[in-house]
Specification:
alpha+beta; eleven-stranded mixed β-sheet; globular
Amino acid sequence: MTDEPENAVRERVVAQATSLFEVHDNVSRVIGELDLPMGEVYDEYDIKSDDTFDFEGMVRLYLYKEAAEMKQEEVTSRVRNWEYLQQRFGLDRAPTQPAFSYTKKHRFSYEFRSLLNDIAKGIRDAGRQQGHYDKDLRSPEPTPSPDEIEETSTPLHHYVDDHAPDIISAALNDVCPAFDTGRAHNVVHEDQTVWEHQILMSLSDRAGTRSAFRTFNKFRTRALHNDTHVRAVKKLGTPSSHQYTFDDFNGRRRPTPHWRKVTDTIQPQFSEAVDNMLGRIRESDEFSEPVVAAIDTVRVPVSVTPYKGEADIEPGDPKVQFDNGEYGFPKDDYPEMITGRENKPYGYEYATLTIVGHNDPIVLAVEPVRHNSTWELGNGMSVSWAETVDRLMQQATELVDIHLVMADRAFDTYEVKHVLDQYHDVNYLLPKKKNSEALVQNLDDVESDSTLVSRVQRKPLNLDGNNTQYVEAESDDTVGEGGYSHEETYMYVPAEKDDWVITEEDDVKYTVFVTNREDVLPEDAMGFCNRYSSRWDIEIEYKMIKPLLPSIASKDYRMRYFSFVFSCLLYNLWRLMDHSLKRLASEAFDNYGRLTFDDRLDPLMPIADFLASALILMFREDGLDPPD
């Protein structure tokens, strides 16, 4: 901080802004021309290099964010897309969101951030007093100086366009050979053609319909019929040793292997494709093991109800009573893998394990989620979260070494934690359920430091031998005497969001995390729990994977599961392509690269551009130009 009192600094800077708003009607130009008292402000970041962002430039960018009331993602996107803002704020390039977040937390002290927040509020109020409304404060300047645009132009995007096709082609070669339909060698359409059409299904707005295939086939020399594609995928998802029985032919239903056999057949092929991708990523210094992983679930909705319409109900049909007192009559042939409730969307649910944190986010494992649903009238089965996590970890640890696993509250069960600690010997970090009986109600009994708000408590985790799922507490060698599993550490840390609040003490709202690490001290709890924020990579992943899912009407689980798995591979392909482009760009451009506090650089090519490029490459392989 400066020796000048904070109020005086605030008043002086806001007075400048008030005067500048009389000349300029744009907040970025006003902030860019402010005379900031930077002489005695201390930069908390003590490492200096050519790649370090200019401290004063980051201060101006922070003021811009707060004055315009933008989120971090929005302001970093804006300064990247509107390059003149970089010149205006004194930045040599656009900082990524992690770089901005790091600067705020580690280069700006708490007192300095508070001062900047007050100054930004004063700038915003000054703009409004001059007649500049919120939309004017947020909008980029429509007519920036031509000099500003010219000075910050860069040929990096041309470099990306030139090298992307070769990288995408090589990446596709990593995926497609891993899948084998097991069909005869003399088939008209080889497996490669089948997978090309699977990708086309994901890229088409009308994906999965017969009209989509007809549209694509008009431009290809060897048309692949929809039925041929369906048969190929079904054969891929059928175990080579599978034998149908008379029970499989129940009524009009076509025989389909059990869903577990389907997944056990497809998963090894998925793992081989991912391993091929990781082989390319491991060549770089940016990838490091052991990795941090996140587990979560996603539901792919379906619009078909599990209950019969009035015209199909027959006397004596079994029924289900809803919470509102009404009744539903379950269909006889509703797909067993669809889950949901009357007040929630029905759909197929999948669990994934993904690399998060510093490394590129790659989906390592995919597992179906099976729940007993009300329309199954108690005849369905449920697979415990512990078994799902165990299977995910078995797949993932064949590919990489893992040292920390994070998941949401749904996975906060004794059995899941036992599986992670005892079966796979990894650390875990989980938020506690709000209704957990294990939470300590009296925070006075929790180990604490009077100078800190974070608090820590250690306690043993014991399994109930009569009430455990998946883990046989009575006979499992990994379970100790009295059901003992391992020691847990409960960390009470201030909640960043109200919906995460579990308890409150001395006007401090707390959330509670649990880990099997025993070396976490109260002063370390906040920093360790902050790692949980990297779990949001998996949430972003789902937002990108869902649009890649082809719209298929088939109830056959081979089609459903393979479509989701293949969409995950397309997402991985995009990440692999982006990783390779960054490696090339860092070698070709001296000022491009990862900083010490930059967890991940922004993608060089949006996923939409990647998909379009892949589509064009496929048409060119047939010697044709893509359709208009």
